[in-house]
């Protein structure tokens, strides 16, 4: 058994680690999941400036990706629809309507220049073997910007999940620049579907946001949805509106969807209903308003999952930008020095006619030696040792190049190399300034192409209970003893919404709080039915006159119901009590008909209700008078005063 447990534990840990690192969670360095990284690497491999069929790209990517082609195709379409790295041709679906893309064999794609600018540099990229060992794939791309914030991500792994919202590319670049400049910045989400967003609880990428559709409400009889909340489509939005209408939560006439490359959902309202009557319901009961909880979880530089904040991501990538630019400068410097060395050898080889010295040589060794001897007088101009590769390259120069050799052209090229080397040397001494200049150039190019689409504003969240329409009529049929919204006949006691609760008091003075019932049996006799909202409970006082069965005296109890357990039955009367009268009115007096023991004195007596305190439901009643009585009733105090006058 221990052996089996060991196998299960080991395999589960390996599976969990694989799902977390190699499938669901993006890497901090380049903001990509493995399948996205492999797609981009495939596009780099086949890039020739022309469009490639998506089916071919998917097939090529399967050399890197150990899973099926369906996952590659889906990830490629999603990545292409972000309009950042991939140029599209054909039907890639519609992010507004949710319509799917055409089959992979019918659509084409290619890389956009931004992908090479930000990601591609094989010379400074670390590679590892693919799943079958036949090729090399990048561990991560050397990304110059925090793509994790630009692209956003969503994924569920074993025991953890990530949900990162997309941000505007230009705003992310400006935030990175501000950090390098030592300035403050604010960075908030920006969605491709536009809409409105409340970032009050954003908490640097780990809180929550409220996203709303943008509605045109100028027409009092028509509402037009022009932009969508994040994560919704016109199809899901319309479905949610129709579902709310079917449940009587909102009242609409009809819905027409005219969406193409822009969103246009037209909601026509029925007679007697106006825009202002429906707005709160749309936000409360449909996908016109969505709340999203966020978790900025990434695979960190140490290959372990880590929850980060936006400032931490910006700080890390600002440092990474400087490191990448330094590597690129050093790499370019080395390449230029190689070119300078090669051009210097070539110039001396041709100008000084060193090639003449090999005319009489008969072996490779003597040819190489003759060339080396020929360069000896000019070693001060050569910055490094002459290698066999250098000699081999010189020997491959065609006679045509020697005869057409242009000294001025060569000098111009050398001057350009020296000037660029001087620039590189300056940049290496001022890396931060160079990084800022790099970001400035990116911002200048992308600002016209990447405007903000989502408007930031304070959104007052609509309370569902407040927005719900009180369109359920609560009827009680005393003949059948049923109460509810589906009772067809009887007295209407109140109007409620589907989110309301009602309090009922039965004839035996027991009470119960319940959700609005469709049809519920309470017995033949009901004293009270009302809503349980705070205002109603606060203003409703139950006044009960009852007989103490032990002594026959009249008692009165006044109370409010403030606390309850849903569906639990409570008693308003204490033990040894017999119910006589009940009222919720306050401007009344109790008229008691006492049993007469003398022919001279009257048996009627009046007691104003206001003379008795309102107490809790568990309190005992107050004795009205220590005298037996035959009946009692409530009468308006004002009526008694008129009779007395």
TrEMBL record:
GO terms for biological process: DNA topological change. InterPro entries: Topo_IIA-like_dom_sf, Topo_IIA_A/C_ab, Topo_IIA_A_a_sf, Topo_IIA_dom_A, Type_II_DNA_Topoisomerases. Residues 25-472 form the Topo IIA-type catalytic domain. GO terms for molecular function: ATP binding; DNA binding; DNA topoisomerase type II (double strand cut, ATP-hydrolyzing) activity. The keyword NADP does not apply. It catalyses: ATP-dependent breakage, passage and rejoining of double-stranded DNA. Keywords: DNA-binding, Isomerase, Topoisomerase. The keyword Isomerase applies. GO terms for cellular component: cytoplasm; DNA topoisomerase type II (double strand cut, ATP-hydrolyzing) complex. The active site is at 106 (o-(5'-phospho-dna)-tyrosine intermediate). Coiled coil: none annotated. Belongs to the type II topoisomerase GyrA/ParC subunit family. PANTHER family: DNA GYRASE SUBUNIT A, CHLOROPLASTIC_MITOCHONDRIAL, DNA GYRASE/TOPOISOMERASE SUBUNIT A. This is DNA topoisomerase IV subunit A. It comes from Oceanispirochaeta crateris.
């Amino acid at each position: 058994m221990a052996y089996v447990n060991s196998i299960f534990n080991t395999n589960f840990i390996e599976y969990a680690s694989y799902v977390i690192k190699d499938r669901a969670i993006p890497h901090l360095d380049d903001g990509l999941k493995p399948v996205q990284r492999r797609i981009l690497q495939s596009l780099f491999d086949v890039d020739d400036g022309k469009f490639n069929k998506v089916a071919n790209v998917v097939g090529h990517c399967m050399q890197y990706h150990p899973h099926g082609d369906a996952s590659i195709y889906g990830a490629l379409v999603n990545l292409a629809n972000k309009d950042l790295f991939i140029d599209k041709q054909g039907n890639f679906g519609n992010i507004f309507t949710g319509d799917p893309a055409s089959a992979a064999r019918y659509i084409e794609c290619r890389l956009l220049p931004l992908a090479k600018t930000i990601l591609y540099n094989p010379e400074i990229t670390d590679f590892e073997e693919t799943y079958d060992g036949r090729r090399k794939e990048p561990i991560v791309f050397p990304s110059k910007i925090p793509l994790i914030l630009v692209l956003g991500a969503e994924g569920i792994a074993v025991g953890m999940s990530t949900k990162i919202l997309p941000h505007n590319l230009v705003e992310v670049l400006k935030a990175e620049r501000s950090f390098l400049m030592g300035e403050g910045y604010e960075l908030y989400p920006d969605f491709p579907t536009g809409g409105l967003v409340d970032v009050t609880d954003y908490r640097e990428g780990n809180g929550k946001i409220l996203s709303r559709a943008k509605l045109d409400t100028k027409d009092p009889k028509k509402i037009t949805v022009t932009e969508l909340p994040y994560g919704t489509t016109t199809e899901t939005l319309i479905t949610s509106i129709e579902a709310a209408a079917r449940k009587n939560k909102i009242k609409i006439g009809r819905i027409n969807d005219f969406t193409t490359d822009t969103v246009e959902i037209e909601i026509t309202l029925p007679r007697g209903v106006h825009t202002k009557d429906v707005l709160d319901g749309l936000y409360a009961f449909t996908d016109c308003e969505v709340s999203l909880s966020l978790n900025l979880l990434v695979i960190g530089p140490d290959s372990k999952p880590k929850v980060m904040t936006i400032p931490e991501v910006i700080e890390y990538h600002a440092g990474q930008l400087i490191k990448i630019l330094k590597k690129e400068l050093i790499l370019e410097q080395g390449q230029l020095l190689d070119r300078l060395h090669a051009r210097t050898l070539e110039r001396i080889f041709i100008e000084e006619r060193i090639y003449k010295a090999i005319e009489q040589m008969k072996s490779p060794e003597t040819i190489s030696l003759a060339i080396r001897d020929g360069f000896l007088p000019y070693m001060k101009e050569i910055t490094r040792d002459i290698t066999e590769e250098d000699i081999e390259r010189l020997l491959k120069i065609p006679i045509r190049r020697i005869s057409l050799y242009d000294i001025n052209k060569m000098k111009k090229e050398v001057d350009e190399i020296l000037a660029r080397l001087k620039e590189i040397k300056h940049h290496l001494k001022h890396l931060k300034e160079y990084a800022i200049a790099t970001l400035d150039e990116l911002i200048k190019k992308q600002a016209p192409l990447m405007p903000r689409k989502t408007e930031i504003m304070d959104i007052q969240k609509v309370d569902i209970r407040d927005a719900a329409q009180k369109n359920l009529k609560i009827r009680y049929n005393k003949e059948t003893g049923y109460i509810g919204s589906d009772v067809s006949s009887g007295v209407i006691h109140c109007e409620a919404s589907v989110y309301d609760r009602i309090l009922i008091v039965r004839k035996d003075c027991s009470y119960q709080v319940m959700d609005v019932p469709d049809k519920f049996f309470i017995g033949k006799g009901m004293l009270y039915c009302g809503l349980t909202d705070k205002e109603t409970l606060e203003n409703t006082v139950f006044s009960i006159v009852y007989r103490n069965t032990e002594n026959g005296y009249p008692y009165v109890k006044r109370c409010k119901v403030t606390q309850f357990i849903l569906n639990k039955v409570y008693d308003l009367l204490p033990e040894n009590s017999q119910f006589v009268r009940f009222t919720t009115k306050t401007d009344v007096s109790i008229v008691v008909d006492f049993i007469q023991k003398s022919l001279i004195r009257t048996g009627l007596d009046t007691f104003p209700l206001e003379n008795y305190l309102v107490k809790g439901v568990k309190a005992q009643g107050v004795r009205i008078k220590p005298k037996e009585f035959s009946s009692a009733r409530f009468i308006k105090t004002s009526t008694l005063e008129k009779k007395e006058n």
